[in-house]
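Sat 14:20. Reprocessing the chain from the morning session after the first attempt stalled halfway. Input below, unchanged.
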Amino acid sequence: MTDIVETRPETRRRRKAERPQEILKAAFVEFSRNGYATTTLDRIAERAGVTKGTIYVYFENKEHLFISMVGELTKGAHETVQEMYETHAGSTADLLRAQFSFIYQHIVEDKRRREVVRMLIAEAPRFPELADRYHEEILRPCLDMLQQAIQRGMDRGEIRKSSIVGAPQVVIAPIALVDLWMMMFEDRQPLDLKAYFDAHLDLVLNGLLAKS
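Finished this time. Tokens:
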């Protein structure tokens, strides 16, 4: 009995530290099953095994919880791609190749992220503020990282001067097509992601790199 009493404070601290992650996991399940509009904080709290008030300790409201959930899914990948940019000493072509390879392996092929995209497409007309927040907190940092890499290549004379630095969406547009394709045709018209990645990268590099 003494041993149990002694471990309780540590157990409580550990459980408290784990609560945000438990809430985020519960939120993903509920949002995925029911959509953004019909999901309630009460249902998320019930699934996470906490009170609704506990959710408010960590998250301002349902919108903040949803965006935090999306950010958690992509956080590690974003940090790795940024680190590649900051530490890469080779050519910009090799940098883009490494970044795109990582993005395909850890973001494009992540079915959880695709489910989030599906929800956003469905909910954006009714909740434009949710789409705006997703753009500012999740999508824009991705575009900024891509612009950094492109600008690096231009500064080094490896990428030709063009308007693409101001419209990086064009470079990653094929990734959006992957999402739509998988949502609509995954079972009936399966996509060869390896061949698609090779074609995407070939298109990007041949379109961006300066001719020697």
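The chain has two domains: 1-59, 63-208.
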